[in-house]
Amino acid sequence: MAGRPLRIGITLGLGSTAESLWLNGIKQNALALAKLFKGSPHGHHVLLLNTTDVPLTADLPWDLTIFETRRFADGWQGLDVLFELGGQIDPDQTDLLKRQGTKIVSYCCGAEYVQNMEAMIFGRRLYDFVFINPRYDEVWIIPQLWTLNRGFFETLRRCPTRQVPFVWDPAALEASARHLPEGGAYRPRLGPKRLSVMEPNVDVLKFCLYPIFIAERAFREVPDRIAFLHVTNAQALASTSTEFILLMNQLDLVKAGRASFIGRMTTPEFLSGHTDIVISHQWELPLNYMYLECCWQGYPLIHNSEAIADLGYYYPGNDLQAATHQLVAALSRHDETWAEYTASQRARIQRYHAESPALIDTYDDLIFALVDGRPA
Protein backbone atom coordinates (compact mmCIF):
# COMPACT_ATOMS: atom_id res chain seq x y z
CA MET A 1 0.00 0.00 0.00
CA ALA A 2 2.90 2.37 0.70
CA GLY A 3 3.61 4.67 -2.20
CA ARG A 4 0.13 4.97 -3.65
CA PRO A 5 -1.66 8.33 -3.85
CA LEU A 6 -3.87 8.87 -0.83
CA ARG A 7 -7.05 10.88 -0.49
CA ILE A 8 -6.49 13.14 2.53
CA GLY A 9 -8.95 15.42 4.32
CA ILE A 10 -8.02 18.20 6.74
CA THR A 11 -10.79 19.82 8.78
CA LEU A 12 -11.50 23.51 9.19
CA GLY A 13 -14.09 25.14 11.42
CA LEU A 14 -14.92 28.41 9.69
CA GLY A 15 -16.63 31.14 11.71
CA SER A 16 -17.32 33.50 8.81
CA THR A 17 -17.15 33.59 5.01
CA ALA A 18 -14.11 35.89 5.00
CA GLU A 19 -12.39 34.78 8.18
CA SER A 20 -8.87 36.21 8.49
CA LEU A 21 -5.87 33.91 8.53
CA TRP A 22 -4.58 36.10 11.37
CA LEU A 23 -7.52 35.47 13.72
CA ASN A 24 -5.55 32.54 15.11
CA GLY A 25 -2.98 30.13 13.75
CA ILE A 26 -5.23 27.16 13.16
CA LYS A 27 -6.12 27.86 9.52
CA GLN A 28 -2.48 28.54 8.72
CA ASN A 29 -1.69 25.15 10.29
CA ALA A 30 -4.25 23.51 8.04
CA LEU A 31 -3.00 25.24 4.89
CA ALA A 32 0.63 24.41 5.65
CA LEU A 33 -0.20 20.75 6.23
CA ALA A 34 -2.26 20.66 3.04
CA LYS A 35 0.60 22.23 1.07
CA LEU A 36 3.04 19.68 2.46
CA PHE A 37 0.91 16.70 1.45
CA LYS A 38 0.19 18.25 -1.96
CA GLY A 39 3.95 18.43 -2.48
CA SER A 40 4.41 14.68 -2.01
CA PRO A 41 5.86 12.83 -5.01
CA HIS A 42 3.09 10.26 -4.46
CA GLY A 43 0.46 12.68 -5.78
CA HIS A 44 -1.93 12.77 -2.82
CA HIS A 45 -5.34 14.36 -3.32
CA VAL A 46 -5.82 16.83 -0.46
CA LEU A 47 -9.13 18.40 0.60
CA LEU A 48 -9.86 21.09 3.17
CA LEU A 49 -13.20 20.17 4.75
CA ASN A 50 -15.31 22.73 6.61
CA THR A 51 -17.24 21.25 9.53
CA THR A 52 -19.47 24.31 10.16
CA ASP A 53 -22.46 25.70 8.25
CA VAL A 54 -20.54 28.77 7.03
CA PRO A 55 -20.80 28.94 3.21
CA LEU A 56 -17.65 28.53 1.16
CA THR A 57 -17.14 31.60 -1.03
CA ALA A 58 -14.44 33.39 -2.98
CA ASP A 59 -14.00 35.64 0.06
CA LEU A 60 -11.94 32.98 1.80
CA PRO A 61 -8.34 34.19 2.22
CA TRP A 62 -6.74 31.39 0.20
CA ASP A 63 -6.81 30.35 -3.45
CA LEU A 64 -9.57 27.77 -3.87
CA THR A 65 -8.00 26.63 -7.15
CA ILE A 66 -4.90 25.60 -5.21
CA PHE A 67 -6.47 24.43 -1.96
CA GLU A 68 -9.62 22.51 -2.82
CA THR A 69 -12.14 23.32 -0.09
CA ARG A 70 -15.50 21.62 0.45
CA ARG A 71 -18.19 21.16 3.04
CA PHE A 72 -17.55 18.03 5.06
CA ALA A 73 -20.75 16.50 3.65
CA ASP A 74 -19.37 16.91 0.12
CA GLY A 75 -15.86 15.61 0.71
CA TRP A 76 -15.78 12.73 3.20
CA GLN A 77 -16.45 9.98 0.69
CA GLY A 78 -13.43 7.91 -0.24
CA LEU A 79 -10.99 9.47 2.22
CA ASP A 80 -8.05 7.34 3.23
CA VAL A 81 -7.13 9.63 6.12
CA LEU A 82 -8.88 12.50 7.86
CA PHE A 83 -6.88 14.93 9.97
CA GLU A 84 -9.15 16.57 12.51
CA LEU A 85 -7.32 19.87 12.91
CA GLY A 86 -9.41 23.03 12.74
CA GLY A 87 -12.94 21.65 13.12
CA GLN A 88 -14.30 18.71 15.09
CA ILE A 89 -16.29 15.89 13.55
CA ASP A 90 -19.28 14.46 15.42
CA PRO A 91 -20.18 10.81 16.21
CA ASP A 92 -22.29 10.37 13.06
CA GLN A 93 -19.54 11.75 10.83
CA THR A 94 -17.03 9.55 12.62
CA ASP A 95 -19.23 6.52 11.94
CA LEU A 96 -19.46 7.34 8.23
CA LEU A 97 -15.68 7.52 7.99
CA LYS A 98 -15.09 4.35 9.97
CA ARG A 99 -17.53 2.37 7.83
CA GLN A 100 -15.46 3.14 4.74
CA GLY A 101 -12.15 2.39 6.47
CA THR A 102 -10.87 5.94 6.85
CA LYS A 103 -8.09 6.46 9.39
CA ILE A 104 -8.84 9.40 11.70
CA VAL A 105 -6.03 11.42 13.23
CA SER A 106 -6.40 14.11 15.84
CA TYR A 107 -3.72 16.62 14.80
CA CYS A 108 -2.97 18.69 17.89
CA CYS A 109 -1.47 22.16 17.63
CA GLY A 110 -3.10 23.90 20.60
CA ALA A 111 -2.15 24.08 24.28
CA GLU A 112 -5.27 22.24 25.41
CA TYR A 113 -3.97 21.05 28.76
CA VAL A 114 -3.18 24.58 29.91
CA GLN A 115 -6.37 25.99 28.38
CA ASN A 116 -8.48 23.48 30.27
CA MET A 117 -6.53 23.98 33.49
CA GLU A 118 -6.98 27.75 33.34
CA ALA A 119 -10.65 27.37 32.47
CA MET A 120 -11.15 25.29 35.60
CA ILE A 121 -9.16 27.55 37.92
CA PHE A 122 -10.23 30.94 36.59
CA GLY A 123 -13.76 30.20 35.37
CA ARG A 124 -12.94 30.74 31.70
CA ARG A 125 -15.68 28.89 29.86
CA LEU A 126 -14.23 26.77 27.05
CA TYR A 127 -17.34 24.80 26.13
CA ASP A 128 -20.87 24.04 27.22
CA PHE A 129 -20.59 20.51 25.86
CA VAL A 130 -17.55 18.39 25.09
CA PHE A 131 -17.30 15.39 22.78
CA ILE A 132 -14.13 13.35 23.29
CA ASN A 133 -14.04 11.16 20.22
CA PRO A 134 -13.19 7.58 21.28
CA ARG A 135 -12.49 6.40 17.72
CA TYR A 136 -9.30 8.18 16.68
CA ASP A 137 -6.64 5.92 15.22
CA GLU A 138 -3.79 8.14 16.39
CA VAL A 139 -3.07 11.52 17.94
CA TRP A 140 -0.32 13.52 16.25
CA ILE A 141 1.27 16.24 18.40
CA ILE A 142 3.70 18.91 17.22
CA PRO A 143 6.96 19.08 19.25
CA GLN A 144 6.34 22.32 21.12
CA LEU A 145 3.21 20.81 22.68
CA TRP A 146 4.50 17.31 23.32
CA THR A 147 5.80 17.68 26.86
CA LEU A 148 2.76 19.42 28.31
CA ASN A 149 0.01 17.79 26.29
CA ARG A 150 0.98 14.18 25.68
CA GLY A 151 -0.48 12.79 28.91
CA PHE A 152 -3.62 14.90 28.54
CA PHE A 153 -4.33 13.59 25.05
CA GLU A 154 -3.33 9.98 25.73
CA THR A 155 -5.61 9.75 28.74
CA LEU A 156 -8.69 11.28 27.16
CA ARG A 157 -8.35 9.99 23.60
CA ARG A 158 -7.28 6.43 24.45
CA CYS A 159 -5.12 5.80 21.38
CA PRO A 160 -1.45 5.95 20.35
CA THR A 161 0.26 9.34 20.20
CA ARG A 162 3.08 10.40 17.90
CA GLN A 163 5.30 13.44 17.99
CA VAL A 164 5.37 14.86 14.46
CA PRO A 165 7.48 17.68 12.99
CA PHE A 166 6.20 21.23 12.99
CA VAL A 167 5.18 22.52 9.55
CA TRP A 168 5.22 26.19 8.57
CA ASP A 169 4.76 28.12 5.36
CA PRO A 170 5.49 31.81 4.70
CA ALA A 171 2.77 32.16 2.05
CA ALA A 172 0.24 33.91 4.32
CA LEU A 173 2.92 36.20 5.69
CA GLU A 174 4.21 37.15 2.26
CA ALA A 175 0.72 37.64 0.84
CA SER A 176 -0.20 40.00 3.68
CA ALA A 177 3.09 41.88 3.41
CA ARG A 178 3.19 42.19 -0.37
CA HIS A 179 1.85 45.76 -0.35
CA LEU A 180 4.23 46.93 2.38
CA PRO A 181 7.58 48.66 1.81
CA GLU A 182 10.24 46.03 1.02
CA GLY A 183 7.56 43.39 1.36
CA GLY A 184 7.46 44.07 5.09
CA ALA A 185 11.04 42.85 5.55
CA TYR A 186 13.48 44.45 7.97
CA ARG A 187 15.52 47.44 6.89
CA PRO A 188 17.86 49.49 9.09
CA ARG A 189 16.63 52.84 10.37
CA LEU A 190 18.76 55.69 11.66
CA GLY A 191 18.46 56.68 15.28
CA PRO A 192 17.03 54.94 18.35
CA LYS A 193 15.14 51.67 17.85
CA ARG A 194 11.47 50.86 18.33
CA LEU A 195 10.95 47.80 20.50
CA SER A 196 7.84 45.62 20.35
CA VAL A 197 6.37 42.92 22.58
CA MET A 198 3.71 40.93 20.75
CA GLU A 199 2.68 38.14 23.12
CA PRO A 200 -0.99 37.08 22.92
CA ASN A 201 -1.46 37.50 26.70
CA VAL A 202 -4.28 34.97 26.86
CA ASP A 203 -2.54 32.49 29.17
CA VAL A 204 0.64 32.01 31.17
CA LEU A 205 2.54 30.36 28.30
CA LYS A 206 3.24 33.57 26.38
CA PHE A 207 2.81 36.67 28.50
CA CYS A 208 4.24 40.14 28.10
CA LEU A 209 5.66 40.84 31.59
CA TYR A 210 9.19 39.48 31.21
CA PRO A 211 9.67 40.94 27.70
CA ILE A 212 8.64 44.33 29.11
CA PHE A 213 11.17 43.87 31.92
CA ILE A 214 13.87 43.02 29.36
CA ALA A 215 13.12 46.27 27.53
CA GLU A 216 13.18 48.16 30.83
CA ARG A 217 16.56 46.75 31.81
CA ALA A 218 18.03 47.68 28.44
CA PHE A 219 16.52 51.18 28.73
CA ARG A 220 18.27 51.66 32.07
CA GLU A 221 21.53 50.60 30.43
CA VAL A 222 21.36 52.35 27.01
CA PRO A 223 18.41 54.79 27.11
CA ASP A 224 19.60 56.76 24.08
CA ARG A 225 19.31 53.68 21.83
CA ILE A 226 15.63 53.03 22.57
CA ALA A 227 12.97 55.22 21.01
CA PHE A 228 9.82 53.50 22.24
CA LEU A 229 8.26 50.25 23.46
CA HIS A 230 4.98 49.01 21.98
CA VAL A 231 3.16 46.21 23.82
CA THR A 232 0.37 44.68 21.75
CA ASN A 233 -2.59 42.68 23.05
CA ALA A 234 -2.24 44.63 26.31
CA GLN A 235 -4.88 47.36 26.13
CA ALA A 236 -7.26 45.51 28.43
CA LEU A 237 -4.49 44.81 30.93
CA ALA A 238 -3.48 48.47 30.98
CA SER A 239 -7.11 49.52 31.42
CA THR A 240 -8.51 47.02 33.91
CA SER A 241 -5.74 45.13 35.72
CA THR A 242 -4.75 46.92 38.90
CA GLU A 243 -1.69 44.70 39.33
CA PHE A 244 -0.50 45.34 35.76
CA ILE A 245 -1.03 49.10 36.05
CA LEU A 246 0.78 49.34 39.38
CA LEU A 247 3.78 47.36 38.14
CA MET A 248 4.03 49.27 34.87
CA ASN A 249 4.08 52.56 36.75
CA GLN A 250 7.32 51.46 38.43
CA LEU A 251 9.18 51.36 35.11
CA ASP A 252 11.46 54.07 33.75
CA LEU A 253 10.13 53.48 30.23
CA VAL A 254 6.63 54.32 31.41
CA LYS A 255 7.74 57.29 33.51
CA ALA A 256 9.57 58.67 30.45
CA GLY A 257 6.45 58.32 28.29
CA ARG A 258 8.15 55.79 26.00
CA ALA A 259 5.74 52.87 26.29
CA SER A 260 2.30 52.14 24.88
CA PHE A 261 -0.12 49.32 25.63
CA ILE A 262 -2.35 48.69 22.65
CA GLY A 263 -4.79 46.13 21.29
CA ARG A 264 -4.53 43.33 18.76
CA MET A 265 -2.40 43.94 15.67
CA THR A 266 -1.66 41.99 12.50
CA THR A 267 1.96 40.87 12.54
CA PRO A 268 3.21 41.91 9.05
CA GLU A 269 1.82 45.44 9.20
CA PHE A 270 2.91 46.03 12.76
CA LEU A 271 6.44 44.83 12.13
CA SER A 272 6.77 46.98 9.05
CA GLY A 273 5.26 50.14 10.46
CA HIS A 274 6.22 50.18 14.13
CA THR A 275 9.04 47.77 14.94
CA ASP A 276 12.80 47.40 14.79
CA ILE A 277 13.29 44.68 17.42
CA VAL A 278 10.88 42.12 18.90
CA ILE A 279 11.26 40.83 22.46
CA SER A 280 9.61 37.58 23.52
CA HIS A 281 9.37 35.09 26.37
CA GLN A 282 7.68 31.70 26.50
CA TRP A 283 7.01 29.12 29.17
CA GLU A 284 6.75 25.53 27.87
CA LEU A 285 5.66 26.64 24.38
CA PRO A 286 8.98 26.83 22.55
CA LEU A 287 7.84 27.47 18.99
CA ASN A 288 5.09 29.49 17.34
CA TYR A 289 4.29 31.32 14.13
CA MET A 290 5.25 34.76 15.42
CA TYR A 291 8.85 33.69 16.00
CA LEU A 292 9.21 32.36 12.47
CA GLU A 293 7.44 35.36 10.94
CA CYS A 294 9.83 37.78 12.66
CA CYS A 295 12.94 35.83 11.72
CA TRP A 296 11.82 35.15 8.14
CA GLN A 297 11.38 38.89 7.66
CA GLY A 298 14.78 39.61 9.16
CA TYR A 299 13.70 41.29 12.40
CA PRO A 300 15.94 40.73 15.41
CA LEU A 301 14.02 38.47 17.80
CA ILE A 302 15.10 38.32 21.44
CA HIS A 303 13.68 35.01 22.67
CA ASN A 304 14.11 32.02 25.01
CA SER A 305 12.84 29.24 22.75
CA GLU A 306 15.28 26.34 22.99
CA ALA A 307 13.69 24.75 19.90
CA ILE A 308 15.07 27.57 17.76
CA ALA A 309 18.18 28.56 19.69
CA ASP A 310 19.93 28.97 16.32
CA LEU A 311 17.44 31.67 15.26
CA GLY A 312 17.31 35.28 16.37
CA TYR A 313 19.02 36.31 19.61
CA TYR A 314 18.55 33.48 22.09
CA TYR A 315 18.69 33.65 25.88
CA PRO A 316 18.11 30.67 28.19
CA GLY A 317 15.06 30.19 30.39
CA ASN A 318 14.20 33.15 32.59
CA ASP A 319 17.67 34.72 32.51
CA LEU A 320 16.76 38.36 32.03
CA GLN A 321 20.38 39.43 32.40
CA ALA A 322 21.30 37.30 29.38
CA ALA A 323 18.21 38.55 27.55
CA THR A 324 19.18 42.16 28.23
CA HIS A 325 22.69 41.46 26.94
CA GLN A 326 21.20 40.07 23.72
CA LEU A 327 18.90 43.07 23.32
CA VAL A 328 21.75 45.52 23.82
CA ALA A 329 23.78 43.57 21.26
CA ALA A 330 20.95 43.82 18.75
CA LEU A 331 20.56 47.53 19.46
CA SER A 332 24.27 48.05 18.96
CA ARG A 333 25.26 45.77 16.10
CA HIS A 334 22.34 44.23 14.24
CA ASP A 335 22.32 46.75 11.41
CA GLU A 336 25.92 45.95 10.54
CA THR A 337 24.92 42.48 9.26
CA TRP A 338 21.16 42.72 8.73
CA ALA A 339 21.21 41.30 5.19
CA GLU A 340 23.34 38.29 6.17
CA TYR A 341 21.11 37.77 9.22
CA THR A 342 17.97 37.65 7.08
CA ALA A 343 19.50 35.17 4.66
CA SER A 344 20.70 32.91 7.47
CA GLN A 345 17.32 32.99 9.19
CA ARG A 346 15.50 31.92 6.04
CA ALA A 347 18.01 29.15 5.39
CA ARG A 348 17.59 27.76 8.91
CA ILE A 349 13.80 27.98 8.82
CA GLN A 350 13.76 25.67 5.79
CA ARG A 351 13.62 22.72 8.19
CA TYR A 352 10.01 23.71 8.97
CA HIS A 353 9.01 24.79 5.46
CA ALA A 354 6.03 23.00 3.91
CA GLU A 355 8.05 22.62 0.70
CA SER A 356 11.02 20.93 2.41
CA PRO A 357 11.66 17.58 0.66
CA ALA A 358 12.94 16.06 3.90
CA LEU A 359 9.83 17.15 5.78
CA ILE A 360 7.55 15.85 3.01
CA ASP A 361 9.32 12.48 3.12
CA THR A 362 8.96 12.32 6.92
CA TYR A 363 5.23 12.95 6.73
CA ASP A 364 4.83 10.42 3.91
CA ASP A 365 6.53 7.83 6.13
CA LEU A 366 4.16 8.72 8.97
CA ILE A 367 0.96 8.60 6.92
CA PHE A 368 1.85 5.37 5.11
CA ALA A 369 2.70 3.74 8.46
CA LEU A 370 -0.74 4.85 9.65
CA VAL A 371 -2.68 3.44 6.69
CA ASP A 372 -0.57 0.27 6.60
CA GLY A 373 -0.99 -0.29 10.35
CA ARG A 374 2.71 -0.49 11.14
CA PRO A 375 5.07 1.50 13.40
CA ALA A 376 6.38 4.71 11.85
Which structural traits does this protein have?
about 375 residues; alpha/beta; 2 domains; globular; DUF2827; DUF2827 domain-containing protein
Please give the structural blueprint.
Elements: E1 7-12, H1 26-38, E2 45-50, E3 69-71, H2 72-75, E4 81-84, H3 91-99, E5 103-108, H4 112-122, E6 138-141, H5 143-157, E7 161-163, H6 171-177, E8 193-197, H7 209-221, E9 226-231, H8 235-240, H9 242-248, H10 252-255, E10 259-261, H11 267-274, E11 277-279, H12 289-296, E12 301-303, E13 313-314, H13 320-333, H14 338-349, H15 357-372
Parallel strand pairs: 1-2, 1-4, 2-3, 4-5, 5-6, 6-7, 8-9, 8-11, 9-10, 11-12, 12-13
Helix pairs in contact: 6-11, 7-13
The level of helicity is 25-40%
CATH topology of the largest domain: Rossmann fold
Structural class: alpha/beta
Any idea what the CATH architecture of the largest domain is?
3-Layer(aba) Sandwich
Strand order of the largest sheet: 3-2-1-4-5-6-7
Radius of gyration: 22 Å
**Which residues form runs of ≥5 with pLDDT under 50?**
none
What portion of residues belong to β-strands?
A: 5-15%
Q: Biggest β-sheet: count, sense, barrel?
A: 7 strands, parallel
CATH class of the largest domain: Alpha Beta
**Number of structurally distinct domains:** 2
| Number of strand elements | 13
The termini sit apart by 14 Å
- Helical segment tally? 15
Shape: globular
Give the SSE string: EHEEHEHEHEHEHEHEHHHEHEHEEHHH
How would you state the average pLDDT, rounded?
A: 95
